[in-house]
Amino acid sequence: MAMEYVPNAEAIRPRRQIDWVPIITLGIPTLFVILFFVMPIVLIGRYSFNSIDPVTGLMTTDWSFAAYERALTSPIYQKIFLRTLTIALTSTIVALLLAYPLGYFIGAVAEPQQQGTLILLVLIPFWTSYVIRTYAWIGILQTNGFLQEVVGWVPGMGGSLLYSRAAVIIGFVHVYLPIMILPIYASARNMDKRYIEAAHDLGASPFRTFLRVTLPLTSPGIIAGIVLFFIPVFGSFVTPQLLGGTGDTMMGQQIQNQFGEAFNWPFGAALSMVMTAVVLVAMVLFFRFADPEEIYGG
Amino acid sequence: MGAKLSGRDWFYRGYALLIYVFLFAPILVVVMTSFNPTGRATIPTEFTLEWYSELLDDTQLMTALRTSLIVAVVSASVSALLGLSAAYGLSRYRLPGRGAAQGVFYLPMLVPAVVSGVSMLMWFRNINIELGWPSIILTHVVVTLPFTMTIILTSFAGFDTRLEEAAMDLGATPWRTFRMITLPLVMPGVLGGALMAFTLSFDEFVVTLFVSGGGVQTLPIVVYNRIRYMLSPEINAIATLVMGFSIGLLAIAQGIIIIRRRRERSRQLETA
Description:
The complex is a heterodimer.
Chain A: H1 9-12, H2 20-47, E1 51-52, E2 59-60, H3 66-73, H4 75-109, H5 112-127, H6 130-141, H7 146-151, H8 165-190, H9 194-201, H10 206-234, H11 238-243, H12 251-260, H13 265-289, H14 292-296
Antiparallel strand pairs in A: 1-2
Helix pairs in contact in A: 2-13, 3-13, 4-8, 4-10, 5-8, 6-8, 8-10, 9-10, 10-13, 12-13
Chain B: H1 7-34, H2 50-57, H3 59-92, H4 98-110, H5 113-126, H6 133-157, H7 162-169, H8 174-203, H9 206-211, H10 219-229, H11 234-271
């Protein structure tokens, strides 16, 4: 039988009818995430409006703002919230100061053939377990640890930095530095270097060029780096738990404590919601001031 | 930039070197300590494999290693399948609610791990999902899905849909077209995503701590408990092995990326 000539393939496959393929392929994973992630968050959100019956000590399913009131007004938790913010912001600033010159070097100064290797070297530590990388600092910072025995110099603290706020900040900077370096590298690589040459040719000093040209051109990477670094640090639990002092706890540890030891679920849920809200605000600022496509595309 | 380096270049090079030392020194200290007979974080004067042989006899650590490998393989496979499905749906069709669906996939990346952990723990209790294998694997799939989906989505971004149309016009069924044309073309993305998911799952700690229920323990959980309650030098040995393994996987992932780039380049040369 001779092949029939079909003038238009669309004619035999009419597109008008409902195509079930996209609904199914997109629907299954969406349902999965809703069932095992969105619903859990909704449940915790509901718990945050529950309260604890003072007589029985059990959770009652009323609608109450008691947990939020305590989370936001109790001096102890205000202090912990401020402390978490202080530690997270200090770590972010330290990390930015370390990451910027390196990201800029890899993206804008190093030979293009070397860039891949230099970035890979940044990724290797990031690719290894953060529990192990945090653990490594215990051996370095403890009394008679690597810093004291081999380097022979420990700033203050009588031989041990472990279980101090400095240790927590060092741990954060080490664990999350690569996610600060990557976007700065990307924006340094993508910027148009002719602007810097132009500023130089027009007689601007290197410092002025940096302040007025380089910094604005790489600012999307800086903003992305700050946000991507801040989010996991603010919500962290492991690093302060392993490296920090027991009197210097962060919000993540408080949440764990409310579910693990104190068994005050509504209060733990309210703290969770407050923490998530802070992170979402940081995220909104990120999308408001930085264009992820611009940073990671190209 | 010529062969002669300016003072500024030397500053950058020196600075870069210092940061790399900061990034790698703690890892190297752990590796070094794993061969130190004293088991302490100093420069070793002697060399030993004692901690490695003790590791083999440590049934708790060995069981945890096995658990972590099984969890990582299963959850990376499921995550890659769901990620492929989602990426296919997202890249091909402009459905109403498409943006919202994509947003939902990124949620597990945004919510702090402690919050995800307590939420999933409470939910699993509520809907009677056993805390152990089922809860751990489900959690790891959810946590890794945004990463696998994003990586697979990039494979679809450079996809030439005319190849599929050609196959369909030549009479291939949609399933056959998917299997013979689509899947091979996005395979590097699927493998890359699965590798990423494997590593993330293998290292996942915080969420697992909440949902594991104590009976089934992954390696990071056992390592964490040991670190907190007793310092055992075997930890350095297992840490060294795990880091070597992770870096090996990174090398494989890089290999896949390089192959994909080469393939793309040769394809571009052909069409040019």
